[in-house]
Amino acid sequence: MRRVSGRQPDDARDGPRGMCAVLARAGLDEQGATSVVFAIGFAAIFMISAMAIDFGFGSNEKYRQQSAIDAATLAASAKLGLPEQDTLGPAIARAFFAANTKATSRGVLETVTIDAARGSITSIGSGNYMTSLLNGLGISSLSIGTASKVVKGKTTVELALVLDNSGSMAPEIANLKSSANNLLNIVFAGTEGTEKVRVGIVPFAASVNVGAVNRGAPWIDQAGASSVHFQNFADTSKTRLQLLDQMGVAWGGCVEARPAPYDTTDAAPIAGSGDTLFVPMFAPDEPDSDNSGGASYPNSYLVDDGGSCTPQPQTCTGGFTRRGTCRGWTKSPLTPQVAQARLCKYANQSPSGGTGPNYNCTTAPVLPLTSTKSQVQTAINAMQANGWTNIPEGVMWGWRVLSPGSPFAEGRAYTDTENQKYLIVMTDGENTYQTYNNHNMSMYGAFGYARANRLGTNYGALPAQMDGKLTAACTNAKAAGITIFTIAFRDAATSPNVRNLLSSCASGVDRSFVATDGAGLNAAFEQIGREISQLRVAG
Q1: Smallest Cα–Cα separation from 537: which of 103, 31, 138, 146?
Q2: Is 493 left (phi over 0), alpha (psi -120 to 50) or beta?
Q3: Nearest Cα to Cα of residue 52 among 169, 134, 120, 109
Q4: What is the pLDDT of residue 536?
């Protein structure tokens, strides 16, 4: 039989070499397909990478512009509540925004809206980020939108302004009133009609006026329970308020400092504990020239043997006439101590010289904490400059205004974590207690006479003793949770002693301010007001 077989492909007939050629052609076809897939994949990866890189840089730029607009809005808040808020506020914001963004960022701060009634500042910005990789894909820029809102803090605020109203403030009292009112505009912005902010005013000079309306208050020593109530009198038959009534003179409203240690603490006044009560100031009638022993006394306002007193014996010093009549009589002198301590001379007598029993009670009354801005403004505008300087008593009554306990009990509890208590102490000079070369050794003031040794026995160092009282008062108030700001103004700004005292009194060196003139005083009050306002960037 004849054997028949099929025809093989030419390459196959060529053996192994032909088979390789077939495989090679198959490989070339597959390589072409892979190249197309790779090209498509690369384009996709490039686009994704370009988007990731440019969007990443764009996000960084948005973050920078957001930080800039937040800072700009906070900067504009410096003018919140002030008359120039709608002009200077936006200008400050734009300057601050420009300083914190790059010129190439194309960022623009479009609007700045300041609303004092709501206590808020709102800013809106826009910008473009110029792309790098996406530009090759036709996307030349990415839009950036930013906005920021600054609002008042959520906590409540209690603030006592302890303001120097001594005579040396006379040339600057108008600046003080203006600066204090600007502070009110800042702290009350967005809170009027609410209880979020309450402010009290404590004008001080040689003493503090707690208000004559409080004469009948249980914390006033009306019955003479305090150990210092009868310090200047021969007996205890008449209290200070009774002596005032005998003369038909109204009590001025000022009180003496409590005896140590209560003069630098917030211990509550208790009826059964006399030294915790507040003694009405009563400046005794000082000796007449007949009874002065040659010394000088600044406050003689009654006749020493007037009222119900037995008249002093008289000695003929003018010679006699031919008929034996004395031409002139002189009272036989009493010792200055006896003449001053007599109570009988006050009976139904009216002051006719000196400054009377309210000597060194020169300031307007304390205003307890109130949320009514107009009441605070009225108290500030009623201030007048007169008298000496007693900073520790000012601080103590500022603390008592903030205290939740008597005598002024408007303050919230110290344990209220949602409430902040602030004290601003402003003075233009040194503590002062005028000394005299007489048996009292000093003027009459909130610490009585120097001879009572309530400020120590070194009568030449009375102001230094007051400095110690100030340091103790500040230390105790801060320990109670009160934040203290201090302002050394004018002469105080150039006195190393006062500056050091106020710096140590403040709650940190950043809360101790120095102002040499009215503009500096206003700037200090504004800066303090901004911190107290607790402005924050809204989330």
Answers
A1: 146
A2: alpha
A3: 134
A4: 66
